[in-house]
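agent> Task received from the user: take the single chain below, predict its 3D structure, and emit structure tokens. No templates, no multimer pairing.
agent> Plan: (1) validate residues, (2) run structure prediction, (3) serialize to tokens, (4) report one or two observations.
agent> Step 1 OK, no nonstandard residues flagged.
tool_call: predict_structure(input=
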Amino acid sequence: MKENATFAAPLGMVLVAVVCAAGVWLFAQRVLIPYQVTDAAAHDRPRANLSDLYPRWVGARELLLHGRDPYGAEVAREIQVGYYGRVLQSSRPSDPRDQQGFAYPVYVVFLLAPTVRLPFDVVKAGFFWTLLFLTAISALIWLRASQRVVPFATQFTVVVLTLGSLAVMQGLKLEQMSLLVAGLIAMGILLLIKDQPVAAGIVLAFATIKPQLVVLLLLWLAMWTLADIRRRYVWCVSFLVTMAAMFALSEWYLPHWIPRFWQAVREYQDYTGAMGVMEKLTGPWWGRAMEILTFTMMVRVCWRQRGRPSNSVAFAFTVAMVLAVTVLLAPTYAVYNQVLLIPALLIMVEQRYTIWQRGLGSRLLFGTAAALVVWPWIASVVLAGLSFTLPRETVEQGWAAPFWTALFIPVGVAAVMLVTAGQWTFAASAEQGTS
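)
tool_result: status=success, residues=435
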């Protein structure tokens, strides 16, 4: 009986994960996308490939093959024709606000260089499977960062839930570069843990194609490096040399590209109205105050943990906390960026009993965060099931339900990580003081 019970537990865990993942993808195919297509037709809103990769790929192709400025207006119009099906017109109020300009550093083209002579349909399919594989591997990397032996059933469950999460589903559907950056971050951290600093520096340099997703991580790694610079400087030198090479090569291909990049970023924020999580929730003034407070708490924890070796649990915890805060403080909010919450969520699950025993406040915070995270799976499974029994128009009315907690998830996860880190460092200090 005991053997059957231990076998049933992981089997049940796997089945729940499969149901949740299937629910999210069925929700996307049978509810979300049909609703978007219907709504776009009703409002004469253009749709074509809608791939986030496309603007970057066109920019890379035009720069590398034809020497054209990817930030220029002509290239932007060509991108709109492929992305939306036609050039956007300001005279049409129903047209999307996102102009889909090339708002990335020029050196992103070097990652895409091998694809610029291929048809986009081939590139699109290959990129989808690359992102899927890289995201699955990333989940396993974050599991391994905990320095514990994890059963195969648990590894399988984590991968299924990761690929079946709302954030990853959306990222894969859009071929979002955030998933690529998240994968590069995971690989870079693994290389640091495995004491491969040169490779780690190179990989983390390429992750800066989305600077807003790595700037806080680089700040933490800089603090960590300075704590023992004689032993840890190698990755930093590798990173800086790689960045210098990419900047120089970018300047050779497109002189004076940095001002154009910053102008493209400013224009992107203007025409999309992009803002961070806290600003969306509380407004600009309170939002910025909360961002400053959150940043200060993060820096305090990082400073206390800066002496930890890269193969320690404390190092992995701090990385996970910094990535969770990154999602919260990033200047542009998007659900697919929540792929960076994966290491924090894994730590929360692993430390659930410890957190639960720290008092009523910790229990309420953890329980709230867990409910926020679980809700998209519940809503997706319900809507996917209803799509087989109720009329399409009826089910599509609930299309937004899985996204109800999306804006609050980064808040809950970052709060749990920061509070846990504060309690952890305090406990460690107290322990050292009594020893």
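agent> Step 4: summary for the user.
Residues 1-8, 426-435 have pLDDT under 50 and may be disordered.
agent> Done.
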